[in-house]
Design a protein that fits this description.
This protein has three helices and twelve strands, in the order βββββαββββββαβα. The protein is an alpha+beta fold and 204 residues long. The strands form two sheets. The protein has a six-stranded antiparallel β-barrel. Strands 7-8-11-10-9-12 form a six-stranded antiparallel β-barrel. The termini are far apart.
Length: 204
């Protein structure tokens, strides 16, 4: 489990294209501390498994399903990425519950800067709209954010200077893709309520 609190901005240092997958080598001095084969690291919100690591770099394999459902397929050598290690038991939950399982991708639509923050408008796939609510939580490229405004096909978030400086959202431009993970609690509630309604229908 992750919390959506990015630990560092990493960098793609090598990309190896395989038949039905891709292997990334990434630089991340913080997240590689104590890393070992089989560990999980979230890369732009996608939970990946460490294949090996040397010094401040690690490699991770990305299967075709992940490449198709996320924006990782657009990464190239030199791309900056958000990195986060899993939350340890007993640590503070600084953001919200993040699984590292991307639900879909959006696109940066607009950026509106102000003196102390910046409003970013992001497109929202139709099938995810029901999970996004004003003041609710959403993960964008692995960053835990609060929804400012929730529309039918878009939402906005307000970014403070720290987020702009320490994550990829500080360098993303209109037209750039982002990974989205909606609040898992909303999905569980929907499933439980749906099962309850279905069960009540059967007994009538």
């Amino acid at each position: 489990m992750f919390t959506g609190i990015v630990e560092e901005l990493g960098e793609i240092t090598a990309v190896e294209t395989l038949d039905d997958a891709c292997r990334f080598r990434l630089r991340g001095p913080v997240v590689t501390q104590g890393a070992k084969h089989g560990d999980s690291i979230a890369v732009n919100g996608v939970c990946l498994t460490v294949v090996d690591h040397e010094g401040d770099e690690f490699t991770a394999d990305v299967m075709a399903e992940t490449l198709n459902r996320s924006s990782l397929g657009a990464l190239a050598v030199g791309s900056r990425v958000n990195l986060e290690r899993p939350t340890a038991v007993g640590d503070r939950l600084g953001g919200h519950i993040v699984q590292g399982h991307v639900d879909g991708t959006g696109e940066i639509l607009d950026r509106t800067p102000s003196e102390h923050w910046e409003i970013v408008k992001i497109s929202l796939p139709a099938e995810l709209g029901r999970y996004v609510v004003e003041k609710g939580s959403i993960t964008v490229d692995g960053i835990s954010l609060t929804v400012v405004d929730a529309g039918r096909d878009h939402f906005t978030v307000s970014l403070i200077p720290t987020t702009l400086a320490l994550t990829t959202l500080g360098i993303k431009k209109p037209g750039d893709p982002v990974n989205l993970e909606v609040d898992v609690i909303a999905k569980y509630v929907e499933r439980m309520l749906g099962d309850r309604v279905a069960g009540e229908g059967v007994t009538r």
